[in-house]
Amino acid sequence: MVRRAAAACLVLLPLLGACSKNEGIVDRVELQPFESCDALLDYLRDAAVQEYDSSHEEATNRSTGGIALASASEDKASAPQAPGSFTTTNTQVEGVDEADFVKNDGERIYFLTGRTLRVVKSWPARESAVLATVAIEGWPSEMFLAKTPAGKRLVVFSGTTRVVVTNALTPEPPNPDGDPSKADMTKVTLLDVSSDVPVVAGAWYLPGRYASARMVDGSVRIVLSGDVVRPAEPEVEQGTSWLSGSTSGARRRSAYEEVVRTRKVEEWLPGAYVRRTGALERAQVDCGSFYRPNAPVRLGLATVATLDLSNPTGAIATTTVVGSVGRVYSSAAALYVASPHWWYSFEDGQMDYTYLHKFDLSEKDRVAYVASGGAPGRIVDQFSMDEDKGFLRIATTGMQGNSIVETPESQNRVWVLRENAGRLEVAGRTPPVAQGETMMASRFFGPRGFLVTYLRIDPLFTLDLSDPADPKVVGRLEVPGISTYLNRLDDTHLVTIGESDGRTVELKVFDVGDMASPKVLATQTLGTVSGTSEALHEHKAFNWYPERNLLAIPFTDYASPGAYDPWGSFRSQLRVFRVTAAFGIEPLGSVDHRDLYQNRQRSDWDWGYQPDIRRSVMATGSEQDDHVYSISDAGMKVHALGSLAGTPEAVVAWP
Question: How many CB atoms sit inside 10 A of residue 345's CB?
């Protein structure tokens, strides 16, 4: 069923080229495979013409006073013994690894900084030292570390461009210091790190920008956000109008459509490549791996690629949906990709809506499309989604109503969806929660859920999700400040990070043993209003060590100004705490990297060189001795937990 759809704008392929009006939200969304390359080609051509019409009609509306809506392996025998326990990447789901630019196996720390991979010996702690560096092509972003039957492997993701790949003349973008947001392809580099010197074992170039990745049992699933290769629009004739309602505009549209309808499928789709024995080979386009939705989505390419590390010489299988990538969530069994509804032009009464596509992960070398569904609102982040006992729970927030013509009204709900005959159907939903406020954070743990909203009173809501057909809000706590990330402390407590009502970074411990009556047990405010932490918006920077009840977060701040010395006022720190339900939040000290940055005498901050401590690792030896590793783009320091302010056990400065 389609709601609020114009009669002439049903989402049928033959009509796409003739329709430029808004298409309504589709309640029963599904994906359909393309039967042939001709069918895929027809779809792309029609959709491109519709996109042209819509963009120029929108421009016409703006020029006449139209309204815009705010949318929302095993190591060698000589390898040193590993510590008894250590931290790894903070992930959402147990058993589902998430890529990051720091990986750790207890003996080695692998760190991506700029265009360099650094391999650092990290155990014993006092012997920490750089073992190797490897130049990574493009703009490296994240990686996985895995043990395979053949040994330890790193999978590194980096952005590159079609120009570089198709020319195959140089391993670097034309401008090595350029903007990584210009990347339109993703390079996947497989490295054998079984020894201290990494060896490249494979390389693939996939169309699209890297969006996210998960790894389950040696299978790497990569989500890419790409675009079709659109033809250039015709030049505007001098002294004429380019708006759709003008005569010259009509001529331009006709010329554009003529170009669109003569392009071949390989001209629309950016190619995928694999490097074998030094040469690049282009992979054949498999039109059967492309799917189209029966709902209005932006003309883009959302691709899920699979690399099976147990068979790394095989091809990377891809499944592509015509649409855009919103948020990504994965359990051990299924991966979900969210896409927003696409409003082609702006009208009153529009609303946020999210489409969800489920892919089965049971095959190690590919994904299989299973079902689709949707819900009103938009998803804040990956923690807005969670799968439990076959049910998908999603927390949405969003506006209904034009943001200028009428007062927008925010709607917050939790929806429970179940798979049934190829569809994700709504099994239950909560009533509206904190109507008029905006959801800032959510988290699900088994039958329990938690939401944080923000406007004036900033409450924490607790939810009973034990009955999928009847999810309930059971408790509410009004508390100053907001939490932006919620982490499990134990079965009855949460530890969170957010901002105080005075806008300083703040940690809290909540007692949620009685879900009907949650309480704040402890609060710790950090620094000044100038302070911030990457952990506020990136959970991988929130390093929780449950075996030792330790928490480490990066923190930057400006103290009292120094005389003509920016480093006199700047703080680049790692803050460490012991967090327990019994004693709350106990500050244990901090580590500062100002001296590492000052010694480098470099202040040309860019995407690959930031003045902040970014990540940390904590490890415990056989004598219950705890060690803290603080990592930044300037280097790494290692401290004994009991002497964070004292002399480091080791300092590793990057050259």
Answer: 21
